Amino acid sequence: MSSLLITHIKTLLQAESVARPLPRGAGMAELPALHDAYLLLENDRIAAFGPMAQCPARADEVLDASGRLVLPSWCDSHTHIVFAATREEEFVDRIKGLSYEEIAQRGGGILNSARRLQEASEDSLLESAWGRLQEVIGYGTGAIEIKSGYGLTLESELKMLRVIRRLKTLSPIPIKATFLGAHAVPAEYKSRREEYLDLVVDRMLPQVAEEGLADYCDVFCDRGFFTVEETDRILKAGWRYGLKPKIHANELDFSGGVQVGVANRAVSVDHLECSGEAEIAALLGSQTLPTLLPGCAFFLGIPFPPARQMIDAGLPVVLASDYNPGSSPCGRMAFIVSLACVKMNMLPEEAINAATLNGAHALELEQEYGSICPGKKANLFITKPLNSLAQLPYSFGTDPVETVILNGKVWKGPDGNKKS
Ligand code: NIG
Ligand code: FE
Question: What is the reported pTM?
């Protein structure tokens, strides 16, 4: 057995002796906080925590966290970190006045990423995605979801999902894989979109399922992408292979995406920039989680999702990065938490719950991740010296993470050095 003891923690956050239910509504502002605390890890698990006055005398390794906060790792439930190339030329086009949708209609956007990915080898995609995974681990992410959706052919969708499968075997953090064949209709299917849907349903899904390449099925249900009826067809087909829905909805329009996701018992509906009373009402009567991606609204200059109304109505909001080359080229969850506070009026406590425990629920990993609870996996981070929890989102340009701990051990970065 190996043990790691963290002592003199200024504030230990999101620590619970017994796992509590999913934080929702007013409960999202309740974030457990223990001042002047210790935390004991044994092997890869959380063993115990408490006030310093009751700190165990010894352990194999001891870290002094004076002046620092300790939090469970971020659980980032929505990313697209397998991609072949960045898209900064579209960023400049948007600065000059083109919209995200106009760029997409010209064959840019997702179709641009698909052309680049189709040309890339599986090994090169693995190498670049591995770099991004290391990057976000260094920023404190300790569980993640990764989507396909830049393949858009049978061969290339499978290539992306095989990259994700290889990442799963290499990664020190858990990864959930999502099949997103219906991310955009390829240009060559523009006048025969029904045939592309047939390809997704009749060829891609069966093969993805046979190889066990995905945990979830996604569709970009929105204006200019896939309709409610098309989404319904794909999600029902996914269910036939045991793939639960987890969808892109209501980013560009009040598209009915939230409702079709809820009707198909989606684990989560993600984006929701265009949401009002009808969407909130649909979510309230369901188990489907609303996942907000404020990096996208920030980067595209579109309205932010109504997080405040959602929480005030009693919903359990989730935050994720949406790390991708088109709408949110950022996987730094601490910045996403800052955006949630600054742009969506979420309290720091609400944003931390949304990015940790609620994110773990959106990954269906809440039994093992998302809080510092005896028996759960010891994935957590120690911050740099901070005055208070609020200083974390307040200092939006600073990386607050000093030391990353994964599976009970201090994580050594890609070059063998510890992050600090
Ligand atoms: O979550 N909105 C749809 N899909 C991605 C962006 C895809 C892209 O532009 O490459 C998103 O924002
Ligand atoms: Fe996305």
Answer: 0.98
